[in-house]
Write a structure and sequence with these properties.
The chain is 27% helix and 20% strand. It has two domains: 121 residues, Bacterial OB-fold (OB fold (Dihydrolipoamide Acetyltransferase, E2P), Beta Barrel), CATH 2.40.50.200; 216 residues, no CATH class.
Length: 417
């Protein structure tokens, strides 16, 4: 005769199993991501809270290597190849990721090593998708050692932070992450289609072809008019904003007099000796309004850290061989330099412009300091003003784009980390 178990008992058994699956030591987190400080919940209530909890931080995951399944949120910072080795370029395969709570983390002790199973490698492996560097992901799997290091194995789901976990989402999916190394562009399937997935010299070459095609070349006189449009003050349509000083000044107050604004060549025109000739000398992607005095102080100095305060330019520093702009435009400066390096590649009768890692380049077609410019690109991601400027140049003036505003992670893809 079959045994009949009352429904109430069945429910109790199921609840008990669910509770047993949640280790009592599992740390709960608050909505802000910090450890909970309230009185511990009963086991059944804890089980429900874990289901609704926000993803663990990487530091929490490192401290919870008990084999339980969890979702962890972190930035991709490289590929682990040994217990204490993480590479940031020239990825050997698609088998693993290292994630951290900061996109700029370099200490392996603060990284979680994530196994990438074969089903996920084409979409989430770094060799196939180097543009994942710096992107913020939510990854689900077992919190267990990998490469004899705190990690995640048996990974079952990947997603960009803010999207639904899936094994088929590609690295060009929309993301709301503010990371400078994680943006996408509505032009990926059109303007940049042939560049997507490339790295290194192949990406450099293709970006040069893209940004050099169908371009309208301005005269130096036309640059005055263009800058009044591209650099218009969002809060005052009668003014432009000076790049280094940040001062808002009347559009009509342009010229060569003291306290007027003139045309600053961010890639100093003597670095490659192109002057104001139609071409690099009139490329509005690197020409910006600036106070005459500040422009003179910058001169043809390379970019680097340190020096003495610059008059009329709060936050700017300069010394004998370098200039440091204010923090708010450090990334803007870097991305203009990288644009010039791919746009003016030795053709069209002009020098091959390239950033290098020295200062005091003089008239050579180089500008430094590359390592500092790469850091500035990460430190100061594109903002609304910079993106608007890029769009206006594309729509109205030159009809080409600065790819490093649309894809800041391509700086690393071309020049390394």
């Amino acid at each position: 005769m079959p045994v009949v178990i009352p429904r109430r008992r069945i429910a109790a058994v199921v609840t008990g199993l669910a509770v047993a699956l949640v280790p009592p030591s599992l740390a709960l987190t608050s909505a802000a991501g910090s450890p909970a400080t309230t009185v511990p919940l009963p086991r059944a209530a804890a089980a429900q809270a874990v289901v609704a909890a926000v993803p663990l931080t990487v530091s929490q995951a490192i401290g919870s290597q008990t084999g339980q399944s969890a979702t962890v949120r972190g930035y991709v910072v490289g590929q682990p190849t040994a217990t204490s080795t993480v590479v940031r370029s020239n990825f050997p395969n698609d088998y693993a990721l290292a994630i951290a709570d900061s996109a700029s983390e370099t200490s392996t002790s603060r990284m979680l090593y994530v196994q990438v199973p074969s089903a996920f490698r084409s979409a989430w492996g770094l060799q196939s998708n180097p543009s994942l560097m710096g992107r913020r992901l939510d990854v689900t799997g077992a919190l267990a050692a990998y490469f004899s290091h705190p990690g995640m194995t048996s990974t079952s789901a990947f997603a960009f932070s803010g999207t639904s976990p899936t094994a088929t989402t590609t690295p060009t999916s929309t993301t709301t992450s503010p990371s400078p190394t994680g943006t996408t562009s509505p032009y990926d399937s059109t303007y940049y289609a042939s560049a997507i997935g490339r790295t290194g010299s192949a990406l450099h070459t293709e970006l040069h072809r893209i940004v050099s095609s169908g371009v309208t070349t301005l005269t130096y006189d036309q640059v005055w008019t263009a800058l009044k449009d591209t650099d218009q003050d969002p809060g005052n349509a009668n003014n432009v904003v000076e790049i280094y000083s940040g001062r808002s000044i009347g559009k009509s107050d342009n010229g060569g007099g003291v306290d007027q604004w003139n045309r600053e060549h961010v890639w100093a025109k003597s670095h490659g000796d192109f002057g104001t000739a139609n071409g690099p000398g009139t490329d509005v992607h690197h020409l910006r309004p600036e106070d005459v005095t500040v422009n003179s102080t910058r001169g043809n100095l390379d970019f680097d850290l340190g020096g003495s305060a610059v008059s009329q330019c709060t936050g700017c520093l300069s010394d004998a061989d370098s200039f440091e702009p204010r923090n708010a435009v450090k990334g803007d400066v870097a991305r203009m330099i990288f644009y010039m390096a791919v746009r003016w590649d030795g053709g069209d009768g002009f020098a091959d412009l390239e950033p290098n890692n020295v200062v005091g380049n003089g008239s050579a077609p180089y500008i430094g300091k590359l390592s500092v410019l790469k850091q500035w690109n990460l430190q100061d991601p594109p903002d609304a003003f910079e993106r608007r400027r890029n769009q206006i140049i594309f729509d109205t003036w030159q009809h080409n784009r600065n790819p490093f505003i649309d894809h800041p992670e391509w700086v690393t893809a071309v020049w390394g980390s």
